[in-house]
Amino acid sequence: MPLVNAKEMLTKAKEGHYAVGQFNINNLEWTKAILLTAQELGSPVILGVSEGAGKYMCGYKTVVGMVNGMLEELNITVPVALHLDHGSYEGAKACIEAGFSSIMFDGSHYPIDENVAKTKELVAICNEKGLSIEAEVGSIGGEEDGVVGMGECADPKECKMIADLGVTMLAAGIGNIHGKYPENWPGLSFETLDAVQQLTGKMPLVLHGGTGIPADMIKKAISLGVSKINVNTECQLAFAAATREYIEAGKDQQGKGFDPRKLLAPGFEAIKATVKEKMELFGSVGKA
Ligand code: 13P
Prior knowledge:
By secondary structure, the chain is an alpha/beta fold. The chain has twelve helices and ten strands.
């Protein structure tokens, strides 16, 4: 099945009280692992690409070519959206041109009026071209591609202003951060999430920083309107640990263990296992 935008899968998720995972991709192994797991579990999926990862993979056109090729050659029939993660205004336009099916415009660092103006312009372009668009209010903490956010809680009224522009889904800061959570992390602000959901109604809400959020908090967030959950670091940690184990066991020095197809296989399987665990937790299995 060709790429789809994320609107239908997220509308269904919000109505059905489950969430679709956005898993960030970094290379061929990542992309293949996520697509195969989604297909095996009959789950819709969103492939996230940060601007840094896009650059690393030789640019957005390369990413689009790789993903489209895999959808066809791996016979992927579940709905797959290819989504720019935390895009700048220029990055969003480049991805629209390159053939992404969904974009995120992260204008959370602009004053709200500028965030509104730029989001509005991109909503019009996405509507015309049939793409879905995610906007963000209240910066998500932690570090991503060198940008460090403060992990603030969004103002629900500002969320409503952005939601009313016609975005497909909305990321609101609720005390979540990218990367590992510190020991003294107070947890998600369900009070903020509830207030955002009350004002934005049917709008699918997005939870960034999915790595390391305890299962009970994930379930509660879904019950309060979260329909898309982003996971990146957890796949990276799983890949690194499995690769480390392979090399520390000296397997790369046995036979043809140095062949990248063997060397990268444990990490590939570890990504698959992580994605499976998340899809089961988010409730998206069998929802394709
Ligand atoms: P983590 O790296 O914490 O899983 O966050 C991913 C994310 O939110 C991507 O936008």
